[in-house]
TrEMBL record:
The chain crosses the membrane at residues 71-93, 99-118, 130-149, 161-182. It comes from the Eukaryota. This is Major facilitator superfamily (MFS) profile domain-containing protein. It is a multi-pass membrane protein. Keywords: Membrane, Transmembrane, Transmembrane helix, Transport. GO terms for molecular function: transmembrane transporter activity. GO terms for cellular component: membrane. The keyword Transport applies. InterPro entries: MFS_trans_sf. It is found in: Membrane. It comes from Bionectria ochroleuca.
Length: 255
């Protein structure tokens, strides 16, 4: 007869049952570094992503003569860059010595870069940083309205142009901060916060879960992945999700 205690749905379990004290200490440190930064980065990311729509209603439409499908084309090209860029960036992550700074500057690399953690930890950390999406959507309009109300024609520039300057001034420091906070990989670790003992704990955890430590991504890995039914199912669900309103901040309804 099994003696494993029954788990209740309302109990929050931060660690796995088989995590050792050393692993739990390492996980806590990793979460302390990762989760707050990713929340802020995701927040700023969605403020930036909503800029075209906010600028469109804040004077960009009239100043640049956007009276047709220009906004839709603009947002489509943005999404195209994200889609096309994700696989190349995932490939480069295993080769570039300082890949963790890339998410601060290239949109396509953000999600692949932050989802490299183990199994159930992806869900936990994702659930904690993903509210940044809602925060970005809520506060982007506040930033835009403040720029239009307070900075219109300051130094001869329209408020919507100041909006881009403000977001630039916020985004670049957050991207640079990621260089110091994101731990990297075992092959190319960020040693500012992680010592050899912690890297050894991480290495053992990866090997225990069947990961090949230090291996680079090859083209045949990507080819094998895209042929699986799981990949096709996820792509289909993602298309339906985005079509149902995930990109509502892009504001095609403003036309």
């Amino acid at each position: 007869m099994s003696t494993v205690p029954k788990k209740t749905w309302y109990k929050i379990q931060w660690y796995s049952d088989d995590d050792t004290p050393e692993e739990r200490k390492f996980i806590l440190k990793l979460d302390t570094l990762l989760v707050p930064y990713l929340l802020v980065a995701y927040w700023i990311k969605h403020i930036d992503q909503a800029n075209p729509s906010n600028a469109y209603v804040g004077g960009m439409k009239e100043e640049l003569g956007f009276y047709g499908n220009e906004l839709v084309t603009f947002n489509t090209l943005f999404s195209l860059g994200v889609v096309v860029g994700q696989i190349p960036f995932v490939f480069l992550f295993t080769y570039l010595p300082m890949y963790w700074i890339i998410p601060g500057f290239f949109e396509a690399s953000f999600f692949p870069a932050v989802h490299y953690v183990l199994g159930h930890e992806i869900n936990r950390r994702g659930g904690l940083f993903y509210p940044g999406y809602g925060l970005g959507s809520m506060t982007s309009s506040l930033v835009a309205s403040a720029a239009s109300a307070k900075l219109e024609r300051v130094h001869g520039m329209a408020g919507w142009r100041w909006l881009y300057i403000i977001c630039f001034a916020i985004t670049i420091p957050v991207g640079i901060l990621g260089y110091f906070l994101i731990p990297g990989t075992l092959a190319k670790p960020n040693r500012i916060f992680l010592n050899e003992e912690e890297l050894d704990v991480a290495r053992k955890r990866l090997e225990r879960d069947g990961h090949k430590v230090g291996a680079n991504l090859k083209f045949h890995h990507i080819k094998h992945t895209v042929k699986t039914s799981r990949f096709c199912t996820v792509v289909l669900i993602d298309i339906l999700w985005k079509s149902a309103g995930a990109y509502k901040t892009q504001g095609a309804y403003l036309l």
